[in-house]
Write a structure and sequence with these properties.
Shape: globular
Distance between the termini: 17 Å
Number of strands: 0
Structural class: mainly alpha
CATH superfamily: Sodium:dicarboxylate symporter
Radius of gyration: 21 Å
Largest sheet: none
Helix content: over 70%
């Protein structure tokens, strides 16, 4: 393989994933022991996510003199998120009812290992709607960054941005410039850390296969296959239609962010590419203001993959435990899922917690049945994260077009160039797309 090809990050990540699968399959104990490599890479990325989100949003709000336009972007983004997220929930429910995935499993919840889901159910029990809303407000300003809670960071960033926006020009301009410079420093850190993505992907995949094996997929292949195909349908058809309305091809967009998708595939976390995806959206012609608000907000409110998983998995457990649900209960699942999915992080395992929270309001479905999904959740989380990432990218471009701040010329040029159009990571000014040879 030519050295030029091997130097590409996505090629390195792809090779690392293949090697990780091989190690996990051939030497399971060794593969399971490599988990720290994947966890370590995710922790390195999470170190800078909160500061990047904070400085990006603050700069975006503070640099716009018309504060009402910022609020307008936020409202449009939330409306878009709610509509598309509802589509994802409904599609998951419809697919489950059509294929009746799980029927015939005849699972006896009393025979399940309840301890396997104790951690998730405890977290879900503390995740009531009221507590979830109050959790947006951090105990201290620094506390939001210490815990890495994106909703709290978003809350503080909005307050700080509007506060700076209200300052007189002689103070606002230097403070805004300082925020921009600070953000550039953290983007620079990401540029260094992301070079370790192949190592993280290798460790994460080796652990997944070594710890769970291929058998965990085979035993519940029906649910896994249904979820994968439903997510693919959603991306190609639903997000594809939105992309077409916005004037671009969903397949070209997927090709453009393929490096980020491979990193997410290896780590099962969409948070690992948050900084890169924000820069790439700007490089596609979306305004920095819209990117700074829409993308971080989408990580908490626009989780299409998680939404599909929640209704599909809930109905799977209902069929698998021979639980008959009324139309009212099915609608309740939709309504509750709309709430419990909001604020779920892009980190692996969050979807399982929100599923437990959803099941807690439908007592007819034994929550102990969740134990049957523990073994395959790691494989499901990868597709959740991939779908979430694509969904947030399309959402950013859709809101930018809705706001009239999407440069179509730059969009088509960057998509035509593909992954070669990588924005600079060492400053606020982005490079123009570079055509491929």
């Amino acid at each position: 393989m030519p050295r030029r090809v091997l130097s590409l990050l996505y090629v390195q990540v792809l090779i690392a994933i293949v090697l990780g699968v091989a190690v996990g399959a051939l030497w399971p104990e060794t593969g399971a022991a490599l988990r720290p490599l994947g966890d370590g890479f995710i922790k390195l990325i999470k170190v800078v996510i909160a500061p990047i989100v904070f400085f990006t949003i603050v700069h975006g709000i503070a640099s716009v003199k018309d504060a009402r336009s910022v609020g307008r972007v936020g409202v449009k983004a939330l409306v878009y998120f709610e509509v598309v997220s509802t589509f994802a929930l409904v599609i998951g429910l419809i697919v489950a009812k059509i294929f009746r995935t799980g029927e015939g499993f005849n699972i006896d919840p009393s025979q399940m290992n309840a301890s396997a889901i104790q951690t998730y159910t405890q977290r879900a029990a503390n995740d009531s709607v009221v507590s979830h809303l109050l959790a947006i407000i951090p105990d201290t300003f620094v506390g939001a960054f210490a815990t890495g809670d994106l909703l709290q960071v978003l809350f503080l960033a909005v307050l700080t941005g509007f506060s700076i926006n209200a300052l007189p020009d002689r103070l606002r301009e230097p403070v805004t410039h300082a925020m921009d410079a600070a953000g550039a420093v953290f983007f620079g850190i990401v540029a260094i850390v992301v070079k370790a993505a192949p190592v993280g992907a290798f460790g994460a995949m080796a652990f997944t296969i070594g710890a769970y094996g291929f058998g965990s997929i085979i035993r519940l292949a029906e649910l896994v296959a249904t979820f994968y195909l439903t997510a693919l349908f959603f991306v190609i058809v639903v997000l594809g239609a939105i992309a077409r309305i916005c004037g671009f091809s969903i397949l070209r967009f997927i090709n453009y962010i393929r490096e980020e998708l491979l990193i997410v595939l290896g780590t099962s976390s969409s948070e690992t590419v948050l900084p890169q995806i924000m820069r790439k959206m700007e490089n596609l012609g979306a305004s920095p203001k819209v990117v700074g608000i829409t993308v971080p907000l989408g990580y908490s409110f626009n989780l299409d993959g998680t939404n599909i998983y929640m209704t599909l998995a809930t109905m799977f457990l209902a069929y698998a435990t021979n639980t008959e649900l009324t139309l009212t209960q099915e609608l309740t699942i939709l309504l509750v899922a709309m709430l419990t999915s909001k604020g779920a992080s892009g980190v692996t395992g969050a979807g399982f917690v929100t599923l437990a929270a959803t099941l807690s309001v439908i007592p007819d479905i034994p929550i102990a049945a969740l134990a049957v999904l523990v073994g395959i959740d790691k494989f499901m989380s990868e597709v959740r994260a991939l779908t979430n990432l694509v969904g947030n990218g399309v959402a950013c471009l859709a809101v930018s077009r809705w706001e009239g701040e999407l440069d179509p010329v730059r969009l088509h040029a960057a998509l035509a160039a593909g992954p070669a159009a990588i924005p600079a990571a060492d400053g606020p000014v982005l490079r123009e797309p570079v055509p491929q040879d």
